[in-house]
């Protein structure tokens, strides 16, 4: 959540090709490697740091990086399985997942590939994947959540923007594991669809946070005062968000 430049890259550590996100942060003085809860490696570096130098730093710390990645993967493997009966959060509600694979009868011949679907009926989220593959269920659910996010988060932006006296150039829905939202220097706001899986108040806080960056492209006292004007308990919500990171089912 701030003015950074980032790009994706990969580096070979031992026998594995390890993808990572390279971030150059204004006013940052030291390089720092982190593995976030989603299992994404981030190299946060000073503004003038080069990409070859980032790779070098990763290679120098290969042992730590690989060990931390392994531990994060084990944690992710402990996430709830996406099978019938699983509980999925949707803002302040819980939905029960119902997985019913599509009947594989295709009257129009094999050329037509069956496509899965997701439908919400009250508190039940019925998913009809084209195959029994759990990855397929995950992809379908992700796209359903994305659709819900586009609708809900846009309406929250519309709610808060006039109150804060700002107007974003655009609002996009993204799915980066590394961040809940961002705001570009051009006034474009990006929000993570996973915000649909946290309490509504937390999602609202991220919306307000990014909208306030339209006025202050930093985390100055003035920035936080603006956030506080709309969300007085923002510190609590931020702590809550941090606690949820890495425990979301998708
Ligand atoms: Zn920020």
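^ Assign residues to that structure.
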């Amino acid at each position: 959540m701030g003015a950074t430049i980032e790009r994706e890259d990969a580096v070979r550590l031992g026998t594995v090709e390890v993808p990572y996100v390279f971030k150059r942060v204004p006013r940052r003085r030291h390089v720092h490697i982190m593995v976030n809860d989603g299992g994404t490696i981030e190299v946060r570096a000073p503004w003038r740091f080069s990409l070859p130098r980032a790779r070098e730093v990763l290679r120098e710390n290969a042992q730590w990086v690989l060990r931390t990645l392994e531990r994060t993967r084990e944690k992710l493997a402990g996430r709830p399985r996406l099978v019938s009966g699983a509980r999925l959060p949707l803002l302040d509600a819980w939905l029960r997942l119902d997985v019913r694979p599509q009947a594989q009868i295709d009257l129009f011949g094999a050329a037509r590939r069956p496509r899965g679907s997701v439908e919400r009926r009250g508190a039940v989220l019925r998913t009809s994947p084209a195959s029994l593959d759990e990855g397929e269920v995950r992809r379908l659910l992700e796209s359903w959540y994305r659709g819900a996010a586009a609708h809900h988060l846009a309406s929250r932006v519309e709610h808060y923007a006039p109150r804060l006296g700002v107007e974003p150039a655009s609002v996009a829905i993204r799915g980066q594991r590394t961040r809940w939202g961002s705001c570009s220097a051009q006034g474009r706001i990006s929000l993570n669809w996973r915000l649909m899986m946290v309490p509504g108040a937390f999602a609202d806080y991220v919306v307000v946070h990014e909208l306030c960056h339209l006025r202050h492209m930093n985390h100055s006292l003035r920035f936080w005062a603006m956030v506080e004007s709309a969300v007085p308990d923002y510190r609590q919500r931020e702590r809550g968000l941090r606690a949820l990171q890495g425990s979301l089912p998708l």
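Residues 1-2, 209, 213, 219 surround zinc ion (CB under 6 Å).
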